[in-house]
Specification:
By secondary structure, the protein is mainly α. The chain contains two helices and no strands. Helix content is about 65%, strand content about 0%. It is elongated, with a radius of gyration of 15 Å.
């Protein structure tokens, strides 16, 4: 059975660590751009920021998962 809750910790390779760092940095850069004072802060931007957080989370999970 697949370990969907990631109960067993796995050691990440250096390539995976670098990929995760890259994804997080890109997500952070995009999020920061949307937080810029020149962009109106409204519901749509708030939703976009939430989706960035979600996309980073799923990307990291995708990088880490082993079948």
């Amino acid at each position: 059975m697949r370990d969907v809750m990631n109960l067993k910790r796995q050691e990440l390779s250096e390539d995976k660590k670098l990929s995760i760092e890259t994804v997080k940095n890109l997500g952070n850069e995009f999020y920061a751009h949307l937080s810029d004072s020149s962009i109106p802060q409204n519901r749509e931007i708030s939703l976009a920021k939430t989706k960035i957080e979600e996309a980073v989370m799923w990307a990291v999970k995708g990088i880490c998962v082993e079948y």
